[in-house]
Amino acid sequence: MSVDSLKDALPAYAKDVKLNLGSLVTTSSLTEQQLWGTLLACAVATRSQRVIAEIASEAADALSAEAFTAAKGAAAIMAMNNVYYRSMHLIGDETYATMPAKLRMTIIGNPGVEKVDFELWSLAVSAIGGCGRCLESHEQVLRQAGMPREQVQEAVRIAAVVNAVAATLEAETALAAV
C-alpha cells in the first residue's frame, strides 16, 4: 500500500492527476513531517477509504506516532470548524463573528507537534472543506510564523491533488457498477 498504488490505480484520463501526485511526493520543499502530515490529513478529509489506507500506510513510516495522530486530529477538528465557520460567513451577518463558537478546539492550541505543522495541515484540510475563513486564519498564522507563500501554496496543491485522486477513484468504483 502506497502512493505508488494510488498512481497505478488512476485511469488514463486522470494522467495529469497521476503525474501531479508523483511530483508532489518527490519534489516537495516541505519537511518530511509537513509533507506526510499534509498528505495524511488531506486523505482523511477526502473520506475515501482507499486513499486513506494507501496514504496512511506510507505516512506511518514517515511520521512519528505523535505526528500521525496530530495529522488525523487536524482533519477531525477542521471537519467541524470548516462547516461552522463557513456557515457563519455565508449567513452574511457579521454579528455571528462576534459570538463565541462554544465548540471545543483545544487540539489547535496543543496539537502534540510543532504548531506551524499543525496549522499547515489545518490549512490544507480547509482547502478541501472549502472554508474561506479557515483558510485566511491558518494562512495568517503560517505567514506570521515565517512560512513562505510557496510552501503555503504547496500545501494547497497537495490538498487539490489528494482530493482529485479520491474523487477519481471513487467515481471509477461507482462507474464500474454501472
UniProtKB/TrEMBL annotation:
Q: What is its EC number?
A: 1.11.1.28
The Carboxymuconolactone decarboxylase-like domain covers: 97-175
Residue positions of the active site: C131, C134
Q: Which reaction does it catalyse?
A: N(6)-[(R)-dihydrolipoyl]-L-lysyl-[lipoyl-carrier protein] + a hydroperoxide = N(6)-[(R)-lipoyl]-L-lysyl-[lipoyl-carrier protein] + an alcohol + H2O
Q: Is-annotated flag, keyword Oxidoreductase?
A: yes
Q: Does the keyword Transmembrane helix apply?
A: no
Q: Which terms are listed as keywords in the entry?
A: Antioxidant, Disulfide bond, Oxidoreductase, Peroxidase, Redox-active center
Query: What's the protein name?
Result: Alkyl hydroperoxide reductase AhpD
